[in-house]
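Example record

The entry below shows one chain as it appears in the dataset: sequence first, then structure tokens.
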Amino acid sequence: MAYNSLILPSQLAMHQYILGLLTKLACSGLAPRAQSLFDRARVCGKYRWGKKAVLVAGACIAVVLRESRKGVMMSHLAVCILLCNVWYFVA
């Protein structure tokens, strides 16, 4: 992350969220790329944390899965995001 060396606690939480989703999809090796895309989108989009951050994280995961030509259907990704959100926001 050459453009911003400061990592916020909420940013670290989203990185863990992305890693958790990709681990559930058995693609944890793609986490650094998805986290990098998420960080770039956060800086360029200037959005706040919360639901929008979760949606952007899901989009970044979808892009990374598409780039790596993994056979994960979007419906499966959506279910993983839904299930992960239930445990993410309850805990």
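Notes for this example: The chain has one domain: 9-90. The CA atoms of residues 20 and 28 lie 8 Å apart.
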